[in-house]
């Protein structure tokens, strides 16, 4: 059974709004279809805060029990950290956590997407859309 | 017109409220212009009488990132809500006030940003035989940019270091890895100021940051570098390739809490004439106790999935 | 945040948005029409990527463009089939037009490269000729300066730029139900004006270059634009015409169908060859 679904959004929909996005070097639009979202359920494998984009790797098990890895790009490091996504013991993600990822679809059909929302099985909900202009990484400690 | 005024007023008030709410945190004041910041404070000096460039210089962001800085780096100063000017050609640029507060989506924001950071007049003049190649590099930057895949940005593309440490006989520059416009690894340079001369160019193998020596000309630190490999572009945008005979002279001038930088690129093989960047002005981090945080490591995973040509 | 700083900020904000003195309906109409024309082309843009606390207005982001078209054009008084490759820029104003007529009788196509920049005009034997010894030549063509510069200001982007630059000398009017923008040109083109007609979507469909100074009457030209779209491979949302027709006194002098029009400020430069600069300073400029 397919564990993901695709829903097309009207071009006018502002759900994909990411104002002030600290976009990676490559255009988001060159890699993702900003007008098409996908929904993928699985478990957290790893979260990495790296350049040019942070990554959430998710293990997705199909009906036969075969596991494929999905790589979700995330942007807005400052926003992610504010949302508590860095330390597992501060409400962040840890390997094995069950979740559903809502993401913008990869244009090339690969197992990836630009994560917009992480709905955890335990009820936590991380919205990765920034309401305020997204700031680059903090510049001092 | 009334709507424009109301919007502008709302923005102004919001800006004031934002600043008013900042606690003792090291947050920069809101800016309505991208014109170079005016210096404040005195310039500290080292015992030998030179200005002390030591400091964390990312007050306007590491590598002067973000679209307003990138527009300034490209030579366009948006001086007010109604005046913008190309500093290189002196041409006025028409200003279009925002008529709506609706935020842009990724596509709108990226397409606008790409145009905004490359509309200035200050371009290096290559020999005509390379014009098509530079244009091709730029058009296909997603595939061709040598520094969007975690390789070093090189010099002068890395711009102004986020941290400078000045010692009696050398300076250390640290450039955090970039993740905004391009994706690069952290870069450092250790540059002698002890008066030594360059190694003859033919004896150098060529590296990403070259061999640098520095000297003082009055209150300006002049950094002279050659011995580069050909694996970098020499500015953030534009596809500006170069050869192994590239020679770069950077000038650093501190005035209070500002650091002004220019770089002049000479490349007898590729350029018709030397090219000098528009002066860039970095701000000292407003937190006097600022330390550089860890720069995110770079891991390139996008390139295989890029489908279209839109780029920085 | 001291009260003093807060007050100063508030004052700064208020002065920045101070209402300009009332100038009557004309100024407001002109502003609205020019803005609508600029927005139809997507010339004024802003972006908040990584802006932290800065919030800037939009600016005119049109500088260099490259267009490739084919069709027919007047070469030496005859309409011939040709490929046309145009590199242009507005900062500084410059254009390089490379016209390659279709070869006749199996012979090699002879192409003509007509270049202009600011106050110099020249022909290149090959692109960039005259800049590097042994790699082509440049021949001054100052008599064609105005004709070549005019091409820039008759393009839709040029008209909008000229209209803004002329300030309150630009006139907006309604003629036959359509909005018309008339703007005087300046510099070498002083004495000429451009008159653009907008369609219902505020796109410029027709531009007439008129000589206010009778001595320049030979420069008069009319251009029609249609089939606007984003004709670029690197998408920018800037709209460009897909079909361009030029006429002098009702006679078609070019009819071009656009194959591509790159608008993301590609690398196009127009350095003036030294011999062209030298010739301009030692001989009188064209009338």
List the helices and strands and how they pair.
The complex is a heterotrimer of chains A (about 140), B (about 300) and C (about 290).
Chain A: E1 4-8, H1 28-31, E2 32-48, E3 54-61, E4 67-74, H2 77-82, E5 98-106, E6 112-120, E7 125-127
Parallel strand pairs in A: 4-6
Antiparallel strand pairs in A: 1-2, 2-3, 2-5, 3-4, 5-6, 6-7
Chain B: H1 2-21, E1 55-56, H2 67-73, E2 76-78, E3 84-86, E4 92-93, E5 95-96, H3 106-116, H4 131-139, H5 141-144, E6 163-166, E7 170-175, E8 187-192, E9 211-217, E10 220-226, E11 247-255, E12 258-266, E13 275-276, E14 280-283
Antiparallel strand pairs in B: 1-6, 2-3, 3-4, 6-7, 7-8, 9-10, 10-11, 11-12, 12-13, 12-14
Chain C: H1 3-16, H2 25-41, E1 44-45, E2 58-60, E3 65-75, E4 78-90, E5 93-101, E6 112-117, E7 120-124, E8 138-140, H3 145-154, H4 156-165, E9 171-175, E10 178-184, E11 192-198, E12 204-211, E13 221-226, E14 243-248, E15 251-262, H5 274-282
Antiparallel strand pairs in C: 1-2, 3-4, 3-15, 4-5, 5-6, 6-7, 7-8, 9-10, 10-11, 11-12, 12-13, 13-14, 14-15
Helix pairs in contact in C: 2-4
Model description:
The complex is a heterotrimer of chains A (141), B (312) and C (287). Chain A is mainly β and 141 residues long. Chain A has a single domain (27-127), classed as Beta Barrel (OB fold (Dihydrolipoamide Acetyltransferase, E2P)), CATH 2.40.50.140. Chain A contains two helices and seven strands, in the order βαβββαβββ. Chain A has helices at residues 28-31, 77-82, and strands at 4-8, 32-48, 54-61, 67-74, 98-106, 112-120, 125-127. A five-stranded mixed barrel of chain A has the order 2-3-4-6-5. In chain A, a hairpin with a 5-residue loop joins strand 5 and strand 6. The longest helix of chain A has 6 residues, at 77-82. Chain A is globular and about 45 Å long. Chain B has 312 residues and is an alpha+beta fold. Chain B has a domain at 37-63 and 123-305. In chain B, a hairpin with a 2-residue loop joins strand 11 (247-255) and strand 12 (258-266). The two termini of chain B are 33 Å apart. Chain C is α+β, with helices and mostly antiparallel strands and 287 residues long. Chain C has a single domain, classed as outer membrane lipoprotein receptor (LolB), chain A, CATH 2.50.20.10. Chain C has helices spanning 3-16, 25-41, 145-154, 156-165, 274-282; strands at residues 44-45, 58-60, 65-75, 78-90, 93-101, 112-117, 120-124, 138-140, 171-175, 178-184, 192-198, 204-211, 221-226, 243-248, 251-262. The radius of gyration of chain C is 21 Å and the shape is globular. Chain C starts with a helix and ends in a 5-residue tail after the last helix. The mean pLDDT of chain C is 91. Chains A and C meet through loops of A and loops of C. Strand 5 (95-96) of chain B pairs antiparallel with strand 2 (58-60) of chain C.
